[in-house]
Write a structure and sequence with these properties.
By secondary structure, the chain is mainly beta. The protein contains 1 helix and 10 strands. The chain has one domain: Sandwich (Immunoglobulin-like), CATH 2.60.40. The strands form 3 sheets. The chain has a 5-stranded mixed sheet with strand order 4-10-9-6-7. A 3-stranded antiparallel sheet has the order 1-5-8, with no helix packed on it. The protein is elongated and about 55 Å long.
């Protein structure tokens, strides 16, 4: 399987082969620490490469602290369809959300996607104090 999309957003739904994303592509959050994020959605779209049709797989999305400790995890099991058009890419979307995440310290956190326990992609999430965010914006002008 290869990753076709992996992002963090304010909200995500999927229907009829489409992804509806609101506030997608979050890579930075600022606030006074500890900061609590009410809700964060994750979208992971995988495309079949040479996996056997009808095979079973496990998917996990894990959030890690700046020191590498796992904070939370979402998991799902799925089976590739037994029959599919070999000429058309077979994709599978996994959408999940984390509620009430509390980040204790600023730093670079990361979301990591795993397929059958092998890490396949990662998204950095930079958490800044409000002062750091103001300085970051000033430095970029």
């Amino acid at each position: 399987m290869k990753v076709r999309a992996f992002l963090i957003a304010d909200a995500v739904t999927t229907a009829q082969g489409k992804s509806y994303v609101h506030g997608g592509g979050i890579t930075q959050i600022a606030g006074e620490f500890p900061v609590t994020q009410p809700i964060l959605y994750v979208l992971l779209r995988l495309e079949r490469e040479d996996e056997r049709l009808g095979s079973d797989h496990g998917v996990a999305i894990r959030l890690f602290t700046p020191t590498g400790e796992q904070m939370v995890e979402l998991t799902a099991n799925y089976r590739l369809p037994g029959e599919a058009d070999e000429d058309y890419p077979l994709t599978t979307d996994f959408v999940g959300h984390f509620e009430g995440l509390t980040f204790e310290t600023p730093g670079t956190y990361r979301f990591a996607a795993f397929l059958d326990e092998a890490e396949i992609d990662t998204i950095p999430l930079l958490l800044l104090t409000e002062d750091q965010q103001q300085n970051w914006r000033t430095d970029r002008r």
